[in-house]
Amino acid sequence: MTHRYACFIALMGLSAMPAAAHAALAQPSDWLLASLSGAIEHHIAGHTAWHARLMVLGWGILLPLGALAARFFKIMPGQDWPQQLDNKAWWHTHRVLQYAGVLAMTVGLGLAWGLGGRRDTAAQVHAWLGWSLCIAGWAQVAGGLLRGSKGGPADARLRGDHYDMTRWRIGFERLHKSLGWLAIALAVMTIALGLVIVDAPRWMAAVLALWWCAFAAAFIRLQRQGRCIDTYQAIWGPSAVHPGNRRPLMGLGVRRYTVAAWRARCGRP
């Protein structure tokens, strides 16, 4: 009786599911290959398709991964910090991914130039969001080039915008970090709107949704592990002799460590 009752409840639940969910369960491949609107056939111009691919590559993959590297890998796994300082692996990774992402974005913008035939609200919003992202991407590159001098004990000049944490450097860090993460959040909405506008196949939306979920899960996990470490400490160590360590932390979720606290986090004596 219990088994029959459970089967009855399951059947009643299935009968209450939307028609789209029924179709997805019955023929998952057909459902995924169909457009978001449910249309069987999907047609898109070649320039528009490559515009979308390059924008997804740039803003959906390369730039977010570059931001992740900069936030959580300033001290690399296995690095004997603070005996080993200023590991530049994160910096090279961040720079290569950001340059490649902005390049893909720029080429994608060029392919979309003059293709704005649609004038409906969704297309106009997508265009404005896209332009905002392009401006933000170019501004991030320009800001990185104008971030100021480094300085520090390893530099013969010693004095530097970063080592001394001058107003110029503080302004750069606040703007660079906040604008970068804001742009990535905006990119998710822009890409999603673009998929709707071109009535993309459902599998594309599903793959991107899984990717963003995986990205968010990795972000949360690394943040909880305490890997968002102050750039200044990662480069010059925790000693209060360095002027930047005597200033308040900048950025949400950024952490500083004493040598003992870091070793305890890493499970080292």
Query: Could you name the ranges where pLDDT drops below 50 across 5 or more consecutive residues?
Result: 7-17
Task: Quickly count the helices.
Answer: 11
Rg is: 24 Å
Please state the average pLDDT score.
Answer: 88
Write down the overall geometry. elongated
Structural class of the helix and strand makeup?
A: mainly alpha
Give the gist of this structure.
The protein has 269 residues and is mainly α. It is 65% helix and 0% strand.
Q: What does the model show?
A:
With 269 residues, the protein is mainly α. Helix content is 65%, strand content 0%. Mean pLDDT is 88; it is low at 7-17.
List keywords for this structure.
269 residues; mainly alpha; Four Helix Bundle (Hemerythrin (Met), subunit A)
Question: Topology of this structure?
Answer:
Blueprint (H helix, E strand, L loop, with lengths): L1 H14 L3 H8 L1 H6 L12 H27 L16 H24 L8 H25 L15 H4 L2 H31 L4 H23 L6 H6 L22 H8 L3
Helix pairs in contact: 4-5, 4-8, 4-9, 5-6, 6-8
